[in-house]
Amino acid sequence: MSSYSISLNWQRETPDFDYKTFNRGHVWQLSGDQTVRGSAAPDYSGDADMSNPEEALLAALSSCHMLTFLAIAALKKLVVERYEDEPVAELGKNERGKMMVSQLTLRPKVTFSGTVAPSPETVMDLHRKAKENCFIGNSLLTPVALEPRF
To answer: Structure pTM?
Structure first.
């Protein structure tokens, strides 16, 4: 099996360590020397100019679904020219009253090349298979809704 790792670094920048004032900014160090400035979501005293964990979860899911979809399409000899997604994550409370990402919705739009585009039913089947085989989606407890756009 494969293994993946990142580095996450945070350091206190405030004179005190009070819930209302401590800095939420941190850095995710990813492969290839990529760095992402992270923070809490603005609703939780974070910096709106930085990525937050909720967005990162959504990006990981959307990216995984897309890569799985592209692999399946390629194996079926369907040529994808463009893949776009406008996913949404919604927060809510679980059955214990704890905050959670309660809904994840993928809204992919796929453009194929060729004289005959696959039928909407074929595209839905590709998305269904991608959803069933996406590593990230298979790791989540939250339901993932799929709303392809045509």
So the answer is: 0.92
To which CATH superfamily is domain 53-146 assigned? K homology (KH) domain (3.30.300.20)
| Exposure class string for 79-88: b at 16+ Cβ within 10 A, else e | ebeebebebe
Query: What CA–CA distance (Å, rounded) separates 110 from 84?
Result: 6
The first and second tokens of residue 91, run together, are 């927060």
CA 27 to chain centre: 18
The torsion region of residue 46 among left (phi > 0), alpha (psi -120 to 50) and beta comes to beta
Residue 65 and residue 131 in contact, taking contact as beta carbons nearer than 8 Å: yes
Residue type, 43: D
Nearest residue to 50 via CA among 14, 26, 20, 74: 26
CA-based diameter of the chain, in Å?
64
According to CATH, where is 3.30.300.20 located in the chain? 53-146
What's the CA gap between 85 and 105, in Å, rounded? Answer: 10
**107-144 confidence digits (pLDDT tens):** 999 999 977 789 999 999 999 999 999 999 999 988 89
Check pLDDT > 80 for residue 104. Answer: yes
